[in-house]
Amino acid sequence: MSIAETLIPPRPAPKAERKALTTSALIGYIAQALWLVLAIGLVYMVLTGWDPEKFAKYGPRYLDGIRVTATLVIVSVAFGALLSLPIAFARMSKNRLLNGIAYGYVYIFRGTPLLAQIYLLYYGIGSFKPELEAVGLWWFFREAWYCGFLSLTLNTAAYQAEILRGAIQSVPKGQREGAKSLGIPDRIAFRKIILPQALIVALRPYGNEIILMIKGSAVVSVVTVLDIMGQTRYAFSRTFDYQTYLWAAIFYLLIVETLRHVWAWLERRLTRHLTR
Amino acid sequence: MDGVFSAVGSFLGWLGHGLDPLCGPVGIFSFLPPDSIVACGDTGWGDEIALGLKMTLSLALATLPLGLVIGFFIALALQSREPSLRRAAGIYTTIFRGLPELLTLFIVYYGAQILIQTFLAWVGYEERVEINAFVAGMVALSVVFSSYCSEVLLSAFKAIPRGQYEAGDALGLSRSRTMVLIIVPQLVRIALPGLVNLWMNLLKDTALVSVIGLAELLRQTGVAAKVSKQAFFFYMLACGLYLVLAIISSFVLGFVERWAKRAEIGR
User: Fold this and answer.
1) Interface pTM (ipTM) of the complex?
2) Which B residues in the span 103-122 are in contact with A, Cβ-Cβ below 8 Å?
3) Which domain holds residue A116?
4) B243 in contact with A at a CB cutoff of 8 Å?
5) Which chain A residue lies closest to B91 (C-alpha atoms)?
6) pLDDT of B81-115, one tens digit each?
7) Residue B187 CA, distance from chain mean position
8) How many folded domains does chain A comprise?
9) Is residue A63 helix, strand or coil?
């Protein structure tokens, strides 16, 4: 019988085995290299094509465009949220007429392209100038910005109504019954029991909807609103410099990615009582 | 041989005309009086709009397979065990889901033009190149479609249990045959609702290609609206036609979904 007098001295970890180069790894390296080349190409393009004159001329315009896009999105998402409330409730009501109208509204606005809706509002309704002047609404339909705002609002209201309806209906029936058995009035039960749970479900779709709106708002540039996209097209039509589009891409990506991360953080924070 | 081709061509043309829902023999516009504004022929805008509708449909139908195939491979890359592949695919989806579709379209349209021009200049051939709007639209839309499609397929992949792959291994099937025979049939069934949504979005996104001058539905109605000064009517018509396309596709795809689920009935 032998007794170990000393412990085995610490030894370095065994050498990691070199992985064989698989096909997928090869494709992955090539794809990453392609992205890298593309990124370097873009940086090179920006550096060689840098023109202080253009920067001074179009830089402030881009900032202005960001402001326009941000205002447009914020205002129309807010108004769309207001408008989506009656639509969502009509969609959930037992009245078949109300339900049908709300369903039709949602179907029409989700089934047609945003671009066609904007054209319809700006050029279509705008062609009734005398009638609009008689009603006193011409100032509204004359401005491309207002038309863009109205069509974005109507469009997002349809989507938000569906989000809201889905979220409210996802709350289990037992919650409502529980409130009833405690003698809580319907109104308060809705506000304090149903809605908080529904909004948590709706959080992620709402975030997606805002991102879709940021992307969708680029369409208003077609009817001469000078948002990021509009300013880009203006700058491109003056300079024929491809960089204008790259800058727009950078701005949009920055906005969308920031919002996505902020929203993910918000969701983690608001649902921390639900994680197990 | 030429005769056969021309015969087939004329047969297809005749078939296309015969089934044309707007200007064919049983088309809606054909029943209108010839002096109406959407009549078919030289006096009305019916035939132009019918052409636009055809262009919209063919653009969407040409984009779909391309987008699906790219999306499938991106989804494969996204769930691969190789980090470099995952990262590369992640960059792809992040970029193209973050950019507005309109901007992607412009980037593809002008970018391809510039690329080809510089390449030709490098070879020693100086001339202005104009990219076909249909091809540019198809590429841009399938890039956007594929990046959304990859997310749908990725979540469908995650819904398929590991045991299915292991069963394929146990049967001695190769990786690719496991994929085709076992995984893809289930994948289609799980991903179909998401893909239907993407198809609806694709139909709507084709309207954007009108901005770079493709003579599709919205472009044609826009031209008609400008010339005839009846903007409201023509844009209403465009919206209505898009709506009809959406209704028809949801009807047809409802059948497809039921067909795909036929094995699940009773469970």
Assistant:
1) 0.87
2) 103, 106-107, 110-111, 114
3) 72-223
4) yes
5) A35
6) 889 999 999 999 999 999 999 999 999 999 888 88
7) 20
8) 1
9) helix
